[in-house]
Design brief:
The structure holds 2 protein chains of 2 kinds. Chain A is an all-beta fold. Helix content of chain A is 0%, strand content 51%. In chain A, a hairpin with a 6-residue loop joins strand 5 and strand 6. Chain B is mainly β. Helices cover 0% and strands 56% of the residues of chain B. Chain B starts with a strand and ends with a strand. The chains are: A mainly beta, B mainly beta.
């Protein structure tokens, strides 16, 4: 049981490049989330999904897109990376009870945009 | 939306002493308040949580208290150990999780 895994662990992009971050969970969770973590700002929700084929905007969605084609995977895309998107990105998933239950986090992806 | 404030941002204690971290929230609809511990290079992990119908919850050396009227909740760690050193985040949840800005706790041996 791997829990929540994220790919890649590290990435350096140049401004304007695109990339996709992959999140996978093997706990059969309905809900999945993408957060970014910046110094002094805690964790901020980018997008989330309440089930396969559904996505919704969180607190800071601009510049990101997501897709949930399969229940176990949640993809975060950056179409045209900007230095302001330099951050550590965390994926999380939770039980069908939704946000009132424990969120399980992945190990994070450290992204640097030059 | 919800606004969660967390204090202090850094905290140093001697091993064996107690540590207290406080959070306030703004949305009275929030009804679930988890605390997460994040070790260096890892994702946050839930250590304790409390729901709005409970005033206090304890799990060994860790306890959380909630004051709904004042909209604040606190994490208490007793008999601190070096392995308690980490960043701790509070969160308030209604429809979404809103996290505090984190407290870096250092336990000095």
């Amino acid at each position: 049981n791997a829990g929540v895994t994220q790919t890649p662990k590290f990435r350096v992009l140049k401004t304007g490049q695109s990339m996709t971050l992959l999140c996978a969970q093997d706990m059969n969770h309905e809900y999945m989330y993408w957060y970014r973590q910046d110094p002094g700002m805690g964790l901020r929700l980018i997008h989330y999904s309440v089930g396969e084929g559904t996505t919704a905007k969180g607190e800071v969605p601009d510049g990101y897109n997501v897709s949930r084609l399969k229940k176990q995977n949640f993809l975060l895309g950056l179409e045209s990376a900007a230095p302001s998107q330099t951050s550590v990105y965390f994926c999380a998933s939770s039980y069908p009870g939704g946000p009132r239950n424990e969120q399980f986090f992945g190990p994070g992806t450290r992204l640097t945009v030059l | 939306g919800e606004n969660v404030e967390q204090h202090p941002s850094t905290l140093s204690v001697q091993e064996g002493d107690s540590a207290v971290i406080k959070c306030t929230y703004s949305d009275s609809a929030s009804n679930y308040f988890p605390w997460y511990k994040q070790e260096l290079g890892k994702g946050p992990q839930l250590i304790i949580d409390i729901r709005s119908n409970v005033g206090e919850k304890k799990d060994q050396r860790i306890a959380v208290t909630l004051n709904k009227t004042a909209k604040h909740f606190s994490l208490h760690i007793t008999e601190t150990q070096p392995e308690d050193s980490a960043v701790y985040f509070c969160a308030a949840s209604g429809n979404q999780f809103y996290f505090g800005t984190g407290t870096s706790l250092t336990v000095i041996p």
